[in-house]
Amino acid sequence: MNISADQIKKLRELTGAGILDAKRTLEEHNGDFEQALALLKEKGLKNAEKKAERIAKQGLIETYVHGGGKLGVMIEINCETDFVAATNEFKELAHDVALQIAATNPQFVSEANIAPEILDAQKKQFAEAAAAEGKPANIVEKIVQGKLNAYLKESCLLNQSFIRDDSQTIHDRIQVTIAKLGENIIVKRFARFELGG
Amino acid sequence: MNISADQIKKLRELTGAGILDAKRTLEEHNGDFEQALALLKEKGLKNAEKKAERIAKQGLIETYVHGGGKLGVMIEINCETDFVAATNEFKELAHDVALQIAATNPQFVSEANIAPEILDAQKKQFAEAAAAEGKPANIVEKIVQGKLNAYLKESCLLNQSFIRDDSQTIHDRIQVTIAKLGENIIVKRFARFELGG
Predict the structure, then answer these.
(1) What is the rounded CA–CA span in Å between residue B84 and residue B127?
(2) pLDDT band for position A171 (50/70/90)?
(3) What's the confidence (pLDDT) of residue A18?
(4) Which residues have CB under 8 Å from A173's CB, separation 6+?
(5) What pLDDT, on a 0 to 100 scale, did the predictor assign at position A16?
(6) Given an 8 Å threshold on Cβ–Cβ distance, is A61 in contact with B69?
(7) pLDDT, tens digit, for every residue of A112-122?
(8) Is residue B122 over pLDDT 70?
(9) How many CB atoms lie within 10 A of CB B10?
């Protein structure tokens, strides 16, 4: 079996796994990259879920200004210790998230930040539009779910495709850093000002 | 009559008046600095009021991050043209305002941005506190006004004393730049994030 350094490197980039962990998982799956990736992502997700309970009050306020002052973004991104907040990997994550917000203009951090009234109003609007098109009731439900997912993917930062690698969502991008740095990480809030907007 | 270059310089700093205007006003008042200052301020205010009607949609998004990422401020400050937005004087004003917000944590840009409910609740609270102390009704009103003014001076950016020169309010600081640059200038909005806050 031939496991290349490139495979291990790519696997680590996409999951945040350690070298030995990435190598062993590839070996155990006869070098099948996709299988190893799926397994390590699942493992990372479980670890991240365990960490999600931990209090994250350290971190960074990061800003990004574009176009000579025409557009600005400010975020608060939290981790557990100021040691991790000072690492390059955490700073890179903060920068990536600020860039993403500048480029894509999300309305919320995650679905949990949307007021129930707003979500209900969206669902109602999607259902009425589908019904107006004469779709049968059993199809309307599926259409609503599909449109709702598209709405969340557009309006929620964590659900968005990462602009620098659209194989990942922003949620995935954060998970990778959680796996690498071993701390809970949360995007707490953001503001985005566009001149005259 | 002896009018010094220092007097003219100081007068210009405090009012944004031109050299000739500052000199002439001093001459007309026999070198009385305080009289000239009061007159030029009033004149500047009238000019600024005229300009306040003009549409200000250009400007800058300015950010300021303090303490290595522990505290961040982002503001939108508007003027009328991108020519003025690119001047050092406008940039300095933007920076001064961002620093002010970082230092003093105002809640609103100006009194006009306070929701009437909040203002009413504050007044009620001040009146009840004064009444509870057994103050007579005719005094309560004066106490409420005094406490309200103190509240506005603390919570509204424009009413605050400028941290780098407490002889001016932030409103005054902006008026000086309006007088210098000849355009309407507005602090439109700001955000202030404190880590874990």
Answers:
(1) 45
(2) very high
(3) 86
(4) A93, A96, A97, A162, A165
(5) 84
(6) yes
(7) 999 999 999 99
(8) yes
(9) 14
- Burial code of B60-76, b = ≥16 C-beta within 10 A, e = fewer? bbbbbbeeebbbbbbbb
Contact check, Cβ <8 Å, A74/B85: no
CA dihedral B177, B183, B184, B186 (to 10 degrees): -50
Q: What is the DSSP string of B84-96?
A: HHTSHHHHHHHHH
Strand partners, B71: B66, B194
pTM, rounded to two decimals? 0.82
Residue A15 has which token pair?
């999951």
CA distance B190 to A18: 42
CA gap B2, B146 in Å, rounded: 42
Q: In whole angstroms, what is the distance from residue B197 CA to residue B192 CA?
A: 10
For A162, phi then psi, to 5°, come to -70, 125
Strand partners, B79: B58
The answer to whether B30 and B7 have CB atoms below 8 angstroms apart is no
Per CB-CB distance under 8 Å, the chain A contacts of B60 are 69, 195
**Partner-chain contact B196 A57, CB within 8 Å:** yes
| Cα–Cα distance measured from residue B146 to residue A192, given in angstroms and rounded to the nearest whole number | 37
- Single-letter amino acid code for the residue at B26: L
Q: Please state, in angstroms and rounded to a whole number, the distance separating the CA atoms of residues B97 and B102.
A: 9
Question: Which two three-digit tokens encode residue A83?
Answer: 């040691």
Return the closest-CA partner of residue B71 out of B194, B191, B186: B194
